[in-house]
Every structure is written in structure tokens, then in C-alpha cells.
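User: I'm putting together a teaching handout on how multi-component assemblies are represented. Below are the sequence lines for each component of a complex, exactly as they appear in our records. Could you produce the 3D structure of the whole assembly as C-alpha cells, so the students can see both representations side by side? Please keep the chain order the same as the input.
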Amino acid sequence: MELFKKTNFDFLGHKWPFIIASLVLSVAGLLSLAVKGGPKYGIEFKGGMIMTVKFAQPPDIEKIRGALTRALPSPPSVQSFDSSNEIEIEVGLDPVAAQKDPNAGLDRSKQIVLDTLAATYGRPGSGKLDLNNASAGQVSARIADPLQRAGVQLSQQQVDLLAADIISWRDQHGGLITKIDDLRNVPGLTSQVLSVLNQESYVAPYTAARNIEMVGPKVGADLRQQAITATLLALAGMLVYIWFRFEWIYGVGAVIAVFHDTIITIGLFSILNKEISLTVIAALLTLVGYSMNDTIVIFDRIRENLHLNRREPLGEVINRSVNQTLSRTIMTSGLTFLAVIALFLFGGPVLHGFSLALVIGIIIGTYSSVFVASPIVLFWHDWADKRKKTVPEASASALRQGPAKPALPRSSVKVVK
Amino acid sequence: MIKTVVIVATVLICIFGIIGFPTSVDGLKKNVARRIHLGLDLKGGSHLVLQVQVQDAAKTTADQTIEQLREETRTRNIAVNGFDRNDPETLQDTDSIQVNIHGVDPTKAQVFRNLATEKFPDWILTPVNTSDYRMNMKPSALLDLKRNTVTQSIETIDRRVNALGLTEPTVQAHGDPATQSEILVELPGEGDPQHVKEIIGATAQLKIVEVKNEGPWKSKEEALSAKGGILPLNTELREYVSAGGGGGWYLISRTPVITGQDMRTARAATDPDSPGRWETSFTLSQDGARRFEKFTGSNIGNRLAVVLDAQIRSVATIQSAISDQGRINGLASDQEAQDLSLVLRTGALPAGIKYLQERTIGASLGDDSIRDGILSGIAGLIAVIVAMLVYYRKAGLNAVLALLLNTILLMAALCYFGATLTLPGIAGIILTVGMAVDSNVLIFERIREELRSGKSIPAAVDAGFGKAWWTIVDTHVTTIVSCLFLFLFGTGPVRGFAVTLVIGLLANVFTAVFVSKVIFDWELSRRRQVTALSI
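Assistant: Of course. Below is the structure of the complete assembly, with chains in the same order as your input.
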């Protein structure tokens, strides 16, 4: 099967609508960034506490937000994921407390959130242990004595193992036990143990043990700085390599193109109000690699065609090269896009930001190679040619026609070289 | 032929690297789980970043220097009014550590200067005026101090975490090596991070100090006003926190007789004096015991205080010379006594600890991430494979083989290097797969082009591989160059991305160019007359 046998689109002739689209997107993104005061950073970069809580049924977000706002010194952000019963509770850094001991404030926020959740959805007054929010150690400590009293002959080690089995059964079943009787399926759990569990514990309809993250203010700033430095240096490294392999303007074109992709992606994230987290940074790095790869494939073809036919104007060479690689560009982008779309659709909430960045990045990265990187190279060469032309008249065409024309003075040929 | 052997051998070595020699399906699962190290974001666990408060160690060093100066000036008969030091509060102020020497007898100035340069090579002595001096730490000595403090902290925390009996904890230096003061602690699996945090963070700066013969006072203010608002040199006020009420503020010496470093063993026991309470008794090392005996022997009738983390835990009058035993009593619970003996046993931290970052990923979330990740990965892979087969027919099969082999090589390399697979690492794998697909597409499109231009099939295959080769080299080298920078200057997750990507790209050069070509050649040599190529 072949879709693009011999295409001959005039890509560079139609570059303007695309360049304008690029500019509009970049400016819109930058404006959104400016209005919102920079990107919406994830917790890793700005500091604070974040907790992922999973509920058995769709939770009442407003109720939780209300309860937390009353309990916490500063209002939290409570967000739900569309497809699941999970919510994300985020509490920012308290700038005053952070000055003294950042961790104290974070620990306190965490405790307040846990207590509020327990008060709203659990039964903290019952004196029983909440199995959905307990660790294996807590379970074992809680049931060891009652088991003995109930006449179950188990050594401490066996009780520990049993508790660990209960907790890992819970974690393998999405982290939530619906009712204690379900634990019957845990190997080695007899009805006697079950009655002790029923008497000593209960299951709250939520679990906060999914993900808890606390980041102090210094780490965030450091991490941000380091990610930016590393990326800029990586870009510089690529520029030098391409300079070495092609010409410096190719390096500049390629780096501007990937820069353009990154800016637009970050801008779109800002417009869509999505967070830039560490995994999104990984996705940005991926798209830098991807877009760079795409650009180099076209550049390689341009270089090859220039060697084949030195007399053809650069614009035509570029057009032909893009056409020749078009089939490959569409195939590769299409295939990679397939893989990334799968990730976006089925990858779950953790990978959501990551795959979104890639979905955006692959589209933009593909077209920036054609409509950003190549025009830059062409612009530069046209401009350089024009400048040379002004020195001796028509010298450029003299070169194209070769030394066969003896009418021209020799010196003018030299100038061109 | 040799090429085929190379390929088959590589595949076998890789498969062995990932699954070993399994004898059953369960054994296979176990082997894979043991060989592929999953990061905490995929398997659950706690991740703590903490910062060593190096300035604490600088203060301790300054205190020891003051004590030595006092001793040396006394033996050399140099009259000195007193010594003190400044109090750097934050980590950034560590370098400002300074010892002040007040009122040195001007006639002994030369002797004093000689003493300072001879006996205190780590310090620079600067005269402030004719009788006052200050000493600042040399940059090289400061650097050593910082490095040693962090290394010692890592060792201590490592001992503490291991004493808790957790599975495969890691404790290692973290962050920028130039200003390194951070430690990363990773505790895989379900646990109780709060408890671990308390154990790690317990500075357990234990010291036994002399109590000055005054006090105790009811409050800090009362104590201060009793001393006329100014504390005598080298003393400090500390509160006695007693379990049964009482207590008060004592004026104690700043220089300890015994520190946590002199501790040999410690254990928890019930408190014989107050029923229902617990105590931790400890034994001192030989060296510490000798010093302790000397001190208690010459201070009978005076009082001693056991100070733990800036709080006095017990005060006792010295009845007779004590050599190597001591106890901290009145602890509220068995757990508290156990924890205290654990931190005393594993040694005190040379400096305080601040938590910068903490992350606890539930094992259930990790499981979900892996399931979702694998599911979406397989869905994506199937889509890519189907598209390749439809578009390139038999040659597509070739590409699919190369792609699968690439993934196997990458996983095997991760297993052999003992690298950890994290979410950013998976990002690296996705880019690798993208570039592997791209390499194949590049080659196939090139072969098609060569065929269109009228070349014979074998010549077109050769030319296709030959011309695509340099493009593949350029794209791969560019990405590897950028990975180099990401690895050198990036932090944890960014590095993980770079490592996986580099391995994947190297594997890709092997599979897409070498293996794929061998398969093509084999396909062509099988048929005598090559009239059509399925591409």
C-alpha cells in the first residue's frame, strides 16, 4: 500500500498561513502565561501538599471542599478526575510558616486533611481501626491480642504475615475493601479471624493511602532551575552537533523549531489550565527529541539533494526534499500518534498530563519541521545571497551558470566564493 | 551466517537477562519481578528528601575548638578573658562560623599566635585589636566538614532505617554535588512513613553536661534576670522536661562531657523508680568511659544533666565516679524507649535534619499505574504493528520483529545494569519505540524510492539501507548528545529518562539497521530470481 507516491506540493509557497498560525498559537500561549503569572506548576515545582483520595462511590466534592476549607488555614484545591472516583486535594505552602520550618506546616496540613476526611466519611468515634487507611503494621498490632483472646493460636510472625496479606489483598483490589466479609478470599483467613476483624475494625468508603506528596519550597525552586538548565544545555548540545554535521543556520533552525514546539505546548497547557508536573517535563523532553528527529530527517534530505544538484535554487531543493520525505513523515507521525493516543485514552490519570503533552507535541513537532525549521534556513540563505548580490551585480547568477561564460571578469567569481 | 549467530546469541542473552531459567509460570513471574527494578512511582513506597543542617556540625566543631583553646592556653600560662562563638542559624550561614577570643594577655601575643597556627591548622587567626582575636575556618576545612557531616549522616540514617527491618531501603546523597547537603531515602512498599520519619529525624543529639551550681529557675525570664540578662560565657539555659511534672530551667555548660558518639549500646527497660514508665539505659565506649570517669571523679557533689535534643531529660548529683553506665528514665511508653534506644545505638546524627520533600505512593496506585501503562502500551503497540503490516506488508513484519527485539534489548539492558524503571523511564521507552518505527519507515520509504527509480531489487535494498544510514546516525547522535546533557545536569527523573533513551537508541541502531538488513538479505537469497519485493 502506498498513499503518497510522487507528491509535489509547494510547501514553502504556502508557508505563510502556517507561520501565522504558529505565531497566533505562540502569542496566545504566551499571553495566557503572562496573564496567569507563569505556568501552573505541579506540586513538585511549587511546594505544598497533595493527596489523592479514592472513594467507593462518586464523592460529593462540594461537601469535602467545604469541610476542608473550614478546617485548614488556607483554602485547598479539590479536583476530581473525570473517569474515576478519585479526587486530588492540594494545599499550598503557608509562606509564613514555610520560612521557619516548611515541613511542620506541611505535616499539619496533611494531618488536618486526614482528620477531616475521617470525620466526614469514617467513624473515628467508634474506636475501631479503618482497614482502608491502615498499614499492615497497624492491623497486626490491632488484632494480635484480640485474636489470642478469641482462641486463635497464631505466633506474632503469623499475625504479621496475615496482616500483610490483608493489606496486599486490599491493594490488589484497587486499594478499597467494600465490606470486611470480602476478606474471606484472603488465604488463611478463617471465620474466627473474620469475626475479630469485624469487631476491631471497619471499612471507610475511601482511601487516602493512594498518593501523598509534600514538597518544601526550596526543592521546588531547585528542581525547576535544574530542569530548565539541563534542557537549555541539551538544546545547545544539539545545535553544536547539527552545526558540525550541516551548517550553523540548520542548527539554529532546528533549535528554534523545537523551542517553538515547547513554547506552544506549555502555552496550550496554560490555556487548558493543566499543570506542568515532573512527568509533563519528561513528555516535553520526549517531544523535543521527537521534533528534532523529524527536522533532521528533512535536513538530511536537503543536504543530499544539494550535493546531487548544486544549481537548483534552495527553495526548490527544500520543497522537493519535503515532498520526498513526506510519506515517511506522515507514516512516522501517524504511527507514533497512534501509540500516544492509546496512552492518552487508556493510560489512566497518572499518565494523563504526560500523554496530553505528547499528543499536542507530536502534531506541532511534525509541522514545525516543515513550516518553521526549513523556512528559517531558506530565509537566511536568501538574505545572505541578496547581500552578496549587491557587491558585484549578478554575481550569484554567474556562479550558477558556471565559469563557462568568459565575458565576466574573474574577480567577480572570486568574490562570490 | 555469522550475522545470524550474532543475532540469535544476542536475543538469547537478552531473554535470559529478563527471565532467567524459569521452571514454571510462577517462577517466570518471580524472575521478571526480581530483575526489573520498578521505581517507587510504579510499585508504591515512600520517598523522602532531607537536608542536613551542616551548620550544627560547624557549631559543634567550634565548641570543641574553644574547649581545646581553653586547655592549651591554660597549660601555656596565657591569660585569656574568655571565648565564645557566633551562632549561624541557616545552612547558608555555615561558612560564617567564627570563634572569638577575648582579652588575651598582650605580652603573650606571640606565644598565642604560634599556638593558634601550630595547634589549629584548620583555622585562620585574625587579630581584631591588641588583645582580641577571631578565628575563621579555612575553606578546605569547611569543605571537609560538610562532606564528612553528610557522609556520617547518610551512614547513621542507613543504620537506623536498616535496624527497622524494612525491605530494600536506599539511603543516598542527593542533589547538586557542589553544595551537597541533601539525602534521599527511599522505602519501597507499604509501611508507616510517619514512624520512619520520626526515627530518621530524631537527631538524638545526646550529651551529658555539667550543671552550673545555680538554679533551677521556674522560667527562662526568671533565669535571665537572675543572671542580670547576660549568661556567663559558654553556658546555655535549657528546660528540664520531667515526665512527672516539676522541672524548670537549668544553666548548663555548652561543652559536653559525653556526646552521642561515645555511645556503645542502648536498650529499653521498665523504669524501676516509677511504675508504668520506661527507661533507656546505655553503655559508653572505652574512650568515653575514661573521660566520664575522670570528670565525675573530680566533680563529686556537682550536678550532671542528660540533654537530648536540646531538652534536659534528667539531672543527677554525682555521688561517686561513674565509668560507663547511664540511663534516661521516665519515658512514657515501651515504643518511646525502644525508639530512643534504637537511635542511641545507631549513633547520633552529627547535625539536625530538615525534610524538604516527602512522597508516599500507595501500592494500589502503583498497581493501577502499571496496569494502565501496560494496557495502553500494548494497545499502542498493536495499533502500530497492524498499521505497519498493512502498509508495508512483508517488510512490515520485518519492522515488527526489529521493534520487538529492540524492546527486549532495552529491557535486558535495564536488567543487567540494575537500572530502575520509572514513569519518566517509560517516556524514554515511548520515544525509543517512536524512533525505532521511524528508522524502519525511513529505510522502507527509501527502498521504495530506489525501486521507483528503476533499480533492481537487491540494489534498491542496499541503496535504501545505505542512504538511510546517515540520516539514522544523525537523528540518533543528536538525541544521544542531548541525553548526555540531561544526564549530567538533570536530577533523578530527568536522568532516568536520559538513561533509558540512550540504551533504547543504541539498541535501535542494532535492530533497525543490522538485524533488519540481515532479514532482508536472507529473504532475497532464499529466492533465485527476485522479481518482486513485498514492501
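A couple of points students might notice: The CA atoms of residues 108 and 359 of chain B lie 59 Å apart. Chain B has three domains: 2-43+364-526, 54-142, 202-359.
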